[in-house]
Amino acid sequence: MIATHAILATATFLFMVPILYAMIKATQNLGASVSTSLVPGTDLIANATTVWERYGIGRMMTNTLFVTAMVTLGKTILALCSAAAFVFFRFRLQGLWFALVLFTLMMPTEVLIRALYDLAGSMQMLNTYQGLILPFIASATGTLLFRQHFLRIPRELVEAAQVDGVRPFRFLVSFLVPLSWNIIGALAVIDVIYVWNMYLWPRWAVSEPDLMMVQVGLVRLLDVVDGNHWGVIMAGAVITMIPPLIIFMLLQERFVRGFAMSGTK
Question: What is the similarity comment for this entry (predicted)?
Answer without folding.
Answer: Belongs to the binding-protein-dependent transport system permease family.
